């Protein structure tokens, strides 16, 4: 690191070498060009800007960065190049690689998710990915405050219109970037959040706010980022016109750079100018003169994006300025010190010449993919749903048609993949879509086509899709609207593309005037989705259902589909001050959660179970129908239990109950049941119980994973997955609490009835005999050793406890074993029990059969057994024979794989009794959902 008073290495006595460090330049092409090679070798260029036009893939980017650094090294550069890119996420990414580089929400999307911790994680992940490719300088965070949010082109690139919120997220992004080892650049000082545009590109947008106004709002994020250690700052090329401050271009004004930024805000990092090739600046001043003005104003690095002739003009202009004593050498060397200090934080020759590349990106990919999904899922915001249209699965039958109307928009800005994608030509009479799959970051039209396909897959029904343009609502649109049963309209910055606003309002009017065949007026369901700026219809309450995604990448729209169809409970909120006028969710109450006391609460729990059963629809069969308060208490020394209640301390009534178990043998913490009095739902009782349960499980020593659903006690094997609206709400409810229901495992309980008249299917016994397994039935502890060793081949929770209970009750339980004849090695086992056993107390579905019944539980087949299905069928067939021989007329299978073996078991006479989705996750990565 080089301080202000530190003596510089004699190498910097060469003025040309020094001047080269004060420029950042770009070039055209995806490989090293003769021009950029000349700039590095002959002009000692110290900083490179890479944009989407340079970057094809992560692998090619790594190669390009290495080649650039190698040229600099071989040319005798004293320090490596600073290589920078814009990688803001959302729609503004310079580097894209659908395999190795993840897509994350825009700054405003992250702010909508409501977590600065998430902002830090996403920023760190973003910086890790670009750093792996050899990039060491990120052009972020974006610190602009949208003080005139509805008319600014920045849109979702910044966190919003609240200075403190923009500041909090900006600092979180900055810290995340720095934690991954890249240096940061705040932009666009002194704020692009309230520019006035005069029209032509030769006119300069103007900031008219006074210094006092700027200080109270726009400058707050910049001031706080500086205090927290921002490495560099980009000063914009806009004009400023207010009392006491007039500048044609901010980056060329000593009032702005030396005065406002350096003196008033005490910034001593690297200052980077806006690109001096911008039309208004080069036309008004010229690049040579502009370079001298930028350095004299206090800029340390002058940015020139791509024109080689202009770049040479800038180099010549700066050298002339020094020769003519227009620029002091003291200023030049102060800038050099700042640049060298910044480079020392992010690079050295060993690092520059050995980028980690693809190998490191491969290790990051799984966790970064999960982070991307979590971030997008958390950002989707349902601003309004007045008529409760969501989820659409409650509205539409499979045979009904859904219409998707999307605008023709440009490809996503700065998307590498978009270079190769031609825009679909606009049409005055658009035709319904023909689906066409392309890359993961696509042109607007193509990503919308992929959205149509996703909607069709999700609802298992027809989706009509067509586009709209500035030509407005055409007859083809009206015909499709009349034909469809529900309509989704997408807008992208309708506040600036006014044709989209007009089109959407026209469609809304048509939907409000729909009539049934009987002449009765019925409003047709309309969902409006803003896929960029959330301000399109944020305050227009005539749009009854309004959703914001904050960008239209494919990843964002995948999360949108989950929200539309109830797979995901939306948790995003509008960022900034606008959210203060929009109450999106009921505020959660925080209930007192107490430990379950068996003596005090047992009767009240029985009453609560009864209330839950009575609250179930007649067509639904409650999993609790034969459960009692005793069903949840294991009293097992190997299982740590903790159960919780929300209760009325005056009446002793229970409003909610949650059971948890920690199985030491597998390190699994289980939520075995969670239910609330139907008369008191939607009051946050379930949230309060769930949070207490998770906090308790997190404290268990040796906790490895969490699971929803328990084998023992076998009441709820997971999230109930039956029919009806209540069941459809449970999955997104748990997803909203942090469980990834998309990775669930289907499990079920099954029953075979009329067992006394049952006979095995023809030929099954013969095929089983030909398979060559030996079976026997054993009872008691003397057989425990090999059996308990065998079941260790499965890490499913509760197995050891079920087998231990069975081994301890030889009079009512047995274990069927399957062995290999050659060496007697155990290949499979299954537990048998009857309704007199202690084990049956934890199997309420057995009691629910209302007849003499026995159970088969916990089959374990050794890994690698080639005839898995045959062996499983054999174990269960023999178990059914034993249960029938005991005089039982029904047999329960209590915990079966809901995917793989149902058909094979159906041939034995079994039918599904209850369906569940077992969900598990790594305890080390669990994130507590903060209270609202």
Automatic annotation (TrEMBL):
GO MF term list: acyltransferase activity, transferring groups other than amino-acyl groups; hydrolase activity, hydrolyzing O-glycosyl compounds
InterPro entries: Acyl_CoA_acyltransferase (IPR016181), GH (IPR017853), Glyco_hydro_3_C_sf (IPR036881), Glyco_hydro_3_N (IPR001764), Glyco_hydro_3_N_sf (IPR036962), GNAT_dom (IPR000182), NagZ_Beta-hexosaminidase (IPR050226)
Regions annotated as coiled coil: none
N-acetyltransferase domain: residues covered: 637-708
Keyword Glycoprotein: yes
A Pfam match: Acetyltransf_1
Residues covered by the Glycoside hydrolase family 3 N-terminal domain: 15-341
Keywords: Glycoprotein, Glycosidase, Hydrolase
GO process annotations (BP): carbohydrate metabolic process; peptidoglycan turnover
Family, per entry: Belongs to the glycosyl hydrolase 3 family.
The name this protein goes by in its record: Glycoside hydrolase superfamily
Natural source organism: Lophiotrema nucula
